Each structure stands twice: as C-alpha cells, then as structure tokens.
C-alpha cells in the first residue's frame, strides 16, 4: 500500500479523471488524496456539462491545508492529470516541493487525434515546467509527438521521441497500430518494451476515461511491484478488459466499478515484449 496525491479533474457523473483513477487505486490497496482541478457535472463528451475550473486560490487553499498538516510528507507518488488551466501547474509544483521523495507521475492530458483540447498556454507549461520534474510520463501518441516536437511515423519514431523527453520512464499508449493490434510502449533505462492489444473494432464505442484508468493502473502496479514492464502488461490487459466490459454493457462510461475485477485479475492477459 502507498499514499498517492493526485491533482486532476473530478466529475459528478461518470468515470473520467479522478473518478477513473481513485477507484482503481483503492482496489489496488492505495490511499489517495485527490485535489480537483475542475468540477464538472459530467464529461463534455455527453454533449455539454455544468461546472468549471476550481479557482486557483481555492486549489492553493486546499493544498495548504494538506501541507500544513504534513499529509504529503509520506506520499509515494504525486500524480498530475487533467489540469484545466496553466496556473494549476504552479499548484502541482508546490505539491512536488512538499513531497520531495515522491515519484512524480505526469499524465499529460493535453489532446488526441491530431489536436490539443486544452489551451496552448497550459500545454506549454506542462512541457516546459512540469514534465522536466517527472520521473514517469504517460502520454498518448499525439501528446508524445507534441511534447517532443517530433513527427512520429511508427514505433521507431515513438521510441526516439520518448528517449528525448526528460522523465526516466515514458509510457506511450497506442504508440503504433499494425494490422488489428495497438502497441503500448515503455521506454526506460532497463530497455524498451511493448505490449500489443487487440484494436477495438468499433472505436466509437470506446468509453471516455481510458487514458486516466490506464495511467492509474500502471502507477498502482508499479508502486506495488517496482517493475515497469510488468506494470505495462498489467495495465494494458486490465484496460482492454474494462473496455470490453463497458461495450458489452452498452455503457458510454468506463466500467471501472461494475467490472472492477478486471483491475485486479484481467480476464485476458497480453505479454510484454522486449524490443531493446
């Protein structure tokens, strides 16, 4: 069991952001301090939402309350996900300073499918100020290309882009697609590893929150076992099971609760392969 501080979004309805991460971490035996960066009624993909960003002053007040009582002192990891506004990077950096021994995990929730869905000021702040402090980063393919400033056309390009980033461990989801397989990639000092998972036939049925859940399960397993290659295989397998369960249930929300067994014992496992 470990203590995790997480700075990411919160929705009232559904399972994205903290509502995807926290259930997974609890299942894996971890304690979580979740400070919300935005409060939304639901994911915007439902056609609209209520709520908005948590004021930076309020974020700092919440963080002050934790710091003043020493709650961050024994955190094994500080995780950042969807920040929503550039000033939240400053909040994240304050949390890092309060937990100097923690593993810093940056899930750069910036965009997908060829474009940013956050402001460029936030994306630049993550790239220039937060990413260099991270020990583990979990970008998707678009985010890896944007953060590295490289064009990526295949697995070799993705490996080179990951090696050019500051974190010692870079895990890229959907780093390549070959035939009916997606390749998840881990690049670290121990080597280069991949896990191939089946491509979901109807991409439109894949629920939101998959990136959040993957990063959470990866981190939870890594904290428990200290093996990033094994964590890559576990997170890839667990997420595939959650996606399949969500589709089978006809849900457009990730089945992180109703199919929680997938987090602890994936129904189908995919092997890790060493590439270098």
Short description:
With 276 residues, the chain is of the alpha/beta class. It contains 9 helices and 12 strands. Helices cover 37% and strands 24% of the residues.
Verbal overview:
- With 276 residues, this protein is of the alpha/beta class.
- The protein has one domain (3-274): 3-Layer(aba) Sandwich (UDP-N-acetylmuramoyl-L-alanine:D-glutamate ligase).
- It contains nine helices and twelve strands.
- The strands form two sheets. A ten-stranded mixed β-sheet has the order 3-2-1-4-5-8-9-10-11-12, with helices on both faces.
- Helix 2 packs parallel to helix 3.
- The radius of gyration is 17 Å and the shape is globular.
- The model has no long low-confidence stretch (mean pLDDT 97).
Task: Please outline the helices and strands.
Layout: E1 3-11, H1 18-27, E2 31-40, E3 51-53, H2 56-68, E4 77-80, H3 88-98, E5 103-106, E6 111-112, E7 115-116, H4 120-130, E8 136-137, H5 141-148, H6 155-163, E9 169-178, E10 181-188, E11 191-198, H7 210-225, H8 228-248, H9 261-264, E12 272-274
Indicate the multimeric state.
single chain
Instruction: Calculate the terminal CA-CA distance, rounded to whole Å.
Output: 31 Å
Kindly report the spatial arrangement of strands forming the biggest sheet.
3-2-1-4-5-8-9-10-11-12
Structural class category: alpha/beta
Q: How many DSSP H or I helices?
A: 9
The CATH class turns out to be Alpha Beta
The parts where pLDDT drops under 50 for at least 5 residues are: none
CATH superfamily, by name, is: Ribokinase
Q: What characterizes the major β-sheet?
A: 10 strands, mixed
Number of strands: 12
Total individual domains: 1
**What is the share of helical residues?**
25-40%
Radius of gyration (CA) equals 17 Å
Instruction: Give the overall shape.
Output: globular
Q: Note the run of SSEs as H and E.
A: EHEEHEHEEEHEHHEEEHHHE
